[in-house]
Every structure is written in C-alpha cells, then in structure tokens.
Amino acid sequence: MASWWGKQAVVALILVLVFGAGGAMGFAMGHRSGGNPSAPESGGSGPDTRGAVIHQLDLTGEQQVQVDSILEHHRERWVQVQEEVSPRFREIVDATRDQIYSILEPEQRAEYDSLLERAREERRSESEDS
Questions:
Q1: N or C: which end of the chain has fewer CB within 10 A?
Q2: What is the pTM of this model?
Q3: From CA 52, how far away is CA 74, in angstroms rounded?
Q4: Are residues 22 and 15 in contact, defined by beta-carbon separation less than 8 angstroms?
Q5: Torsional sign, CA 97, 18, 21, 117
C-alpha cells in the first residue's frame, strides 16, 4: 500500500495535469471567443502583432491590405481547426476529471471541486485582464 505522501504526490501530479489541460482549453476557448491570435485586429502571433508589423516595418497602404488579407485567411483556418479540436479536447479533460473524481473520498471531492472552481476563476480573471 502506498504511503500517505506517495498518494499526495500522485494526487498533486494528477491535479497539475488536469489543471494544465483545463488551462490549455481555457486558453484555446478564450482565443475562439475573441482573442484569436490570427485575427487582423489582434495580430498574427501575439498581442497587436498587426500593429507592430505595420508601424515598425513602415508598410505601405497596399502592404497593409495584404497583411490584413493574410491574417484574415489564417483566422478562418484557426477557427476551423478550433472547431474540430475543441470538442475532442473537452472530452479528454472531462473524462480525466471524471476518473479522478470517481476515486476520491467525499471530503476530497469537495476539495477537488473547490480547486477546479478556483482554477476556473483564475482563468476568467486572466482572460478579463487581457
């Protein structure tokens, strides 16, 4: 039988993995709902990349139109990939959480629910700040 510390380490590792998966999902869903990294208004690979490209490279009007077109093209592709992957990713996260929940004692389930809620609140807060 595993020691108490061994069980705690396993639970901690599982929580890190689940929260990491949830965080990735939250990040991905946040981009889908408006923070799309390829959207022309927000840039191509980070915040305001479009603005940086246009201003730092001193693009002509024609080049700006071309950059916008490229970013819009990739935004559409990003949305397509997101729509394909998000449901499968969500299934994996949900299945993982369900399996963990099934092995916990009632008081551990309450704490687990609390930890998940705190993680959701942190992701919400982070998405509101950005």
A1: N
A2: 0.46
A3: 18
A4: no
A5: positive
- Distance between terminal CA atoms of the chain? 46
Q: pLDDT tens, 9-50?
A: 666 666 666 666 665 555 554 444 444 444 433 334 444 567
CB neighbours of 79 closer than 8 A, spacing ≥ 6?
32, 36
The amino acid occupying position 71 is L
In order of 21, 28, 93, 99, the CA distances from 4 in angstroms are 26, 36, 26, 20
Phi/psi region, residue 3 (left: phi>0; alpha: psi -120 to 50; beta: rest), is beta
Copy the structure tokens of residue 107.
Answer: 């008081």
Q: Which letter, b or e, does each residue of 92-124 get, where b requires 16 or more Cβ atoms within 10 Å of its Cβ? A: ebeeebeebeeeeeeeeeeebeeebeebeeebe
